[in-house]
């Protein structure tokens, strides 16, 4: 699940995807109706990847909360934000048992489920990509030591050739200068 480029703008309903940037504003596209609008620097903009939920131990990023919600719902639609607060709070306790009930406000809980459903309808809730991304990283870690050993050997050989190449270029440049001076003297 990739939340980069997804933002919330205070005072405007729904979530937005950053499409382009200009000198004085950014162009965003609504995930609800795909309309593009400008967002100015005076707007209060929050990136979803920077938002986290308070818990009693440490803050949990929104991405992790949505991943556990998507796992529970099998990437399907979650509970509606219009349901009773008691139902939503109980559901949040199931997916994040140690969330701080004093610091997470009822409006935050409703917004959490509303945003999840918007992302799900836009097709941005996917769990399979994360598994596929982790496998290449593990393979790259295994191949990295092999590359480093060959790079070390390669680094030693060019190091000996580089100083020789520098000397040759300085020697070649000197005769050219001398020949230009001789040409001037002859005239």
Number of helices: 4
> Which shape, going by the Cα principal axes?
globular
Percentage of β-strand residues: 5-15%
Largest sheet strand order: 4-3-2-1-5
Q: How many beta-strand runs?
A: 7
**Secondary-structure element order, N to C:** EEEEEEEHHHH
Helix amount: 40-55%
**Unreliable runs:** 144-175
| Helix-strand makeup class | alpha+beta
Distance between the ends? 76 Å
**What value does the Rg take, in angstroms?**
29 Å
How would you sum up the major sheet? 5 strands, antiparallel
Mean pLDDT rating: 78
Please describe what this structure looks like.
By secondary structure, the chain is α+β, with helices and mostly antiparallel strands. It contains four helices and seven strands, in the order βββββββαααα. It has helices at 62-73, 85-95, 106-121, 128-186, and strands spanning 6-9, 16-21, 25-30, 36-40, 45-47, 52-53, 60-61. The strands form two sheets. A five-stranded antiparallel beta sheet has the order 4-3-2-1-5, with no helix packed on it. α2 crosses α3.
